Amino acid sequence: MAAVSGLMWRPLRPVSGLLKRRFHRTAPVALQVTVRDAINQGMDEELERDEKVFLLGEEVAQYDGAYKVSRGLWKKYGDKRIIDTPISEMGFAGIAVGAAMAGLRPICEFMTFNFSMQAIDQVINSAAKTYYMSGVAAQHSQCFAAWYGHCPGLKVVSPWNSEDAKGLIKSAIRDNNPVVMLENELMYGVPFEFPPEAQSKDFLVPIGKAKIERQGTHITVVSHSRPVGHCLEAAAVLSKEGVECEVINMRTIRPMDMETIEASVMKTNHLVTVEGGWPQFGVGAEICARIMEGPAFNFLDAPAVRVTGADVPMPYAKILEDNSIPQVKDIIFAIKKTLNI
Amino acid sequence: HFGRPRWVNHLRSGASRVLVASRNFANDATFEIKKCDLHRLEEGPPVTTVLTREDGLKYYRMMQTVRRMELKADQLYKQKIIRGFCHLCDGQEACCVGLEAGINPTDHLITAYRAHGFTFTRGLSVREILAELTGRKGGCAKGKGGSMHMYAKNFYGGNGIVGAQVPLGAGIALACKYNGKDEVCLTLYGDGAANQGQIFEAYNMAALWKLPCIFICENNRYGMGTSVERAAASTDYYKRGDFIPGLRVDGMDILCVREATRFAAAYCRSGKGPILMELQTYRYHGHSMSDPGVSYRTREEIQEVRSKSDPIMLLKDRMVNSNLASVEELKEIDVEVRKEIEDAAQFATADPEPPLEELGYHIYSSDPPFEVRGANQWIKFKSVS
């Protein structure tokens, strides 16, 4: 079972300069697909492939999805497979888990992960823990990676670009375990180059494996979701100054791919983690703790540093909002501090 | 593993012994049962029913097994061989046995934490149940679930979060409708849980989508230490589904429960949508083993129910008075049941605990093995699916 959602409201940001440059690079089939369309494709393919798959959530059917992620699916598959629910998160999350227990493969969509808090009991206590306990061969404006990532029994994935989004939702649907997919709503409308492999119906991004988006030698920058783009922007700026960053896109929060991160740190000797969530008990904190426990610690030339959202509830005024999440300048600052330049 | 329930084997051996006796019994008898109170229904279940000798003996044995099993659990708990949470259902046997009698093994059932009786009626052995309570590897959940997390084929536990099982049950009903095999899901909750908001969310969606869900409120008059009058603005639990038709059933009479269940299951299978049943029943024990059960109710009340409404006694009297069985025959069943429970308790006490190496097992399904962190970074467990 996969839980699919995104964040609330905020206006789309313009496509970054880095990405614009990418579009001009010629490839045999330079197809561009937005994150929204990639998720749509992924779900469509899986609905077609396995009749046990169905989608439920608020406005997913006749409205085409609050963020249009499920556009066209109801027309194609009908009432049985694409179900509009009343505003009853706890109720329909429980229904999704029950249907999964009885052998179906529901995709349960929360309009925003803030709404999923009402249902977190069903996700954690009913979905995540059941396999372990049964002995049968068991979430507006904040990032929920740390909340769901805390819980054994769940898998948690966090796509950045279109390729990630399509590949991860397909893997999530096919996985026999409860999977929480943390979509970032701000990314829905952003187009990315779609490599030929990603256009195949069997394209999957494996759960539990990170991707090195950019090779580098001076410092390892680890991130997930939208901030991956900011890290790449920061890397582009720093490259002009002779600093080469290795940018890792985690793709999966739980189970975390520490191997890739450790191998990179052992090569670069420096680490900065970047996330949108709050600092306390977050993804970066977990990465730093694990680095200390593993072989990479002895390769660090400086303490690992975290770049995170500000430790405040999300404010409204634009200037406050902008400064509550990590910006490119914050990432550059942290990298330079770590490298002592 | 999930094959024929074990009691069938016992029935065979019990029946063959009895045939040696020279008594002639009736094949069946007709009984009057209490009329159910109805909500949004023109007609209810029939007020008479036919009980065959074979069924009667089966129900008697099953109820007696549940009774003795729960009492044995009480004993083992007091000896500290069972620990943690333990919620017993003695007094409520007509519910689990009666519900099972009204459905098919291919139907589905989910309940909350007072689940040992259902675990048995849905097909697991007393052995597996008691060994799970004592936390041994021979337990139905390999010792990892305990009292509140037992599962069997088409039985989804055993759920600790009060009320959470109700949307789950509606989801199972959704799967029943989706698969189109005319199966129904019995979704149970207590009088305490009946006030949970998520239950009303489940009512709404079940009715909206006409899910084949039988919502069942097992009303034993007390939600832990709080009587129904102190918890609910309306104690007519069979009406609280509002737009969902309901019936209020005498939960101490197994025949009444059986007929009501047959009626409700037929209603759901016909595609009309969900239906609600309130079973009026009673528990002899307190809420759990840590509750003596006499601070919020009187011993006189408990005694009165025992002497006037005990479900096993009611069935026994009916059968003996209609010549469906003899007192001696039923006593023989009692002896056999006692032995079965004793053997199971022996096993549950002697079986070893699950091996420590398996602490990390079964976190995920169908995954390759991986490592799980223990109490510190140097302690690692292997996790196999």
How would the blueprint of this fold be written?
The complex is a heterodimer of chains A (341) and B (385).
Chain A: E1 2-5, H1 17-24, E2 31-34, H2 35-49, E3 53-57, H3 73-81, E4 82-84, H4 89-101, E5 105-109, H5 113-116, H6 120-128, H7 130-134, H8 145-149, E6 155-157, H9 162-174, E7 179-182, E8 191-194, E9 211-214, E10 219-223, H10 227-240, E11 245-249, E12 252-254, H11 258-268, E13 271-274, H12 283-293, E14 305-307, H13 318-322, H14 328-339
Parallel strand pairs in A: 1-5, 1-7, 3-4, 3-5, 6-7, 10-11, 10-13, 13-14
Antiparallel strand pairs in A: 2-8, 6-12, 9-11
Helix pairs in contact in A: 2-9, 4-6, 10-14
Chain B: H1 7-19, E1 28-32, E2 37-39, E3 48-52, H2 53-78, H3 93-102, E4 108-110, H4 116-121, H5 126-133, H6 165-179, E5 185-190, H7 197-208, E6 213-219, E7 222-223, E8 226-227, H8 228-231, E9 246-250, H9 254-269, E10 275-280, H10 299-309, H11 311-321, H12 327-350, E11 370-373, E12 380-383
Parallel strand pairs in B: 4-5, 5-6, 6-10, 9-10
Antiparallel strand pairs in B: 1-3, 2-9, 7-8, 11-12
Helix pairs in contact in B: 2-3, 2-11, 2-12, 3-9, 5-12, 6-7
The helix content of chain B, as a percent range, equals: 40-55%
Quaternary state reads: heterodimer
Structural class by helix and strand composition of chain B: alpha/beta
Largest sheet of chain B: 6 strands, mixed
Strand content of chain B: 5-15%
* Average pLDDT number of chain A: 87
- How many distinct folded domains of chain A? 2
Side by side, the strands of the main sheet of chain B go 2-9-10-6-5-4
Tell me the β content of chain A.
15-25%
Query: Which value, in Å, is the CA radius of gyration of chain B?
Result: 21 Å
Question: Quick recap of the structure?
Answer:
The complex is a heterodimer of chains A (341) and B (385). Helix content of chain A is 39%, strand content 16%.
